[in-house]
Write a structure and sequence with these properties.
364 residues, alpha/beta, 7-stranded parallel beta sheet, 7-stranded mixed beta sheet, 16 strands, 28% strand, globular
């Protein structure tokens, strides 16, 4: 059996990952975090071990005590972290997986590639919806095009979705701030949560979206050099909450406020007051456009709808699949890499089969 340690294993994402791995015969699961009581409570319920870990204190020593073979790091926000956890895992002989969606963090993980290969370890960053699911979709559909020229895609979250301070802080860290994205073959500045637009989702209706900074914007122009435009958006279900955050983004853009990230606990608390006005349904879409095999204009539209509050489980799938593959000896690769080209579209969507999630695809 392989010892799999989930850091933040009782949190919003960690709990689902822990519950999904608990019944694997090839895995001995350890749930860890700063609260031993919370870890023990979940561990007792799913027949796992519990441990105390604070990633900022004596991490290497704690890993040496626990002796994991695989570590899943779920404790964000990753925007404010370095690679200390990944490096400690390499030093202790453990494979490393994280759920980061921070652009620079995920894109820079290959700085550990040499060290990971020398130790014979696999280090994977961004085992989440972006860039794992998004790159899997591109890889699957790319063969339908002679040239893939544009990606336009986005996520809308449910008001009643499970959410925490770390996720909120991650969004607020770039709200109102400039970041680069590829537009008409040029890297141009856009601003977090601005460029308001309306997107219609099947079964959900219209949702507001704004610019969102994700690893894809850094990775995809290099991975798919034929691309001319890559635009990614995210949005909140209730229009007045989305517009409120859009308005606050201007305070950052014009320099009145340095960052909204310190307000994360307050804004999160306020957002819960409006849960009764929303639903538990979220969505994702991706529009791929370019030239078909015969030079004709071609477009593919993929859409995924998550109901019953199952949306937050989508980013957990890559870590679950990777942990299972590593535990079963199905992955022999070593080194440090963003989570691209490791999980296929088929594998990802099949793993969503037990959830209240559906998807459609249309070609024109």
């Amino acid at each position: 059996m392989r010892r799999v340690l989930v850091i933040g294993g009782y949190g919003n994402f960690g709990r689902f990952i822990s519950q999904s791995l608990a019944d694997q015969h090839s895995i001995n699961l350890i749930i860890a975090g700063r609260s031993l009581s919370k870890a023990q409570s979940l561990a007792e319920a799913i027949n796992a071990e519990a441990a105390v870990i604070d990633i900022h204190e004596n991490l290497k020593a704690r890993l040496q005590d626990i002796k994991p073979d695989i570590v899943i790091h779920t404790s964000g926000p990753f925007q404010s972290q370095g690679y200390e956890v990944a490096e400690a895992c390499i030093d202790c002989g453990a494979h490393y997986i994280d759920l980061a969606d921070a652009r620079e963090f995920v894109a820079g993980i290959d700085s550990l590639d040499k060290k990971a290969k020398q130790a014979g370890m696999l280090v994977v960053s961004g085992a989440s919806s972006v860039p794992c699911l998004t790159s899997a979709l591109i890889d699957d559909y790319r063969g339908e095009f002679k040239t893939l020229e544009s990606l336009d895609y986005g996520i809308t979250t449910a008001q009643k979705t499970t959410r925490g301070v770390a996720t909120t802080a991650a969004i607020l860290s770039y709200t109102g701030k400039p970041f680069k994205t590829l537009i008409d073959s040029e890297e141009k500045d856009v601003y977090g949560w601005q460029d308001l637009r309306v997107q219609k989702y099947s079964g959900l209706g219209k949702r507001l979206l704004g610019n969102c900074n994700v690893p894809d914007l850094e990775l995809f122009p290099k991975m798919y050099p034929e691309l001319k435009t890559v635009r990614f958006y995210a949005g909140l279900e209730l229009p007045f909450i989305h517009v409120t955050l859009w308005a606050l983004s201007w305070l950052v853009r014009i320099g009145l406020v340095r960052s909204l990230e310190p307000t994360a606990p307050l804004l999160l608390k306020l957002s819960f007051l409006f849960d009764g006005l929303g639903s538990a349904n979220s969505g994702f879409y991706m529009d791929l456009t370019g030239k078909g095999k015969n030079g004709e204009n071609k477009a593919i539209h993929f859409e995924l709808i998550a109901r019953s509050g199952d949306g937050p489980f989508i980013p957990c799938i890559p870590a679950i699949l990777l942990a299972k593959k590593l535990a079963n000896g199905e992955i022999k690769d070593t080194g440090a890499t963003p989570c691209v080209g490791i999980i296929t579209k088929k594998e990802y969507l099949e793993a969503l089969g037990e959830l209240n999630i559906s998807w459609t695809e249309k070609q024109s």
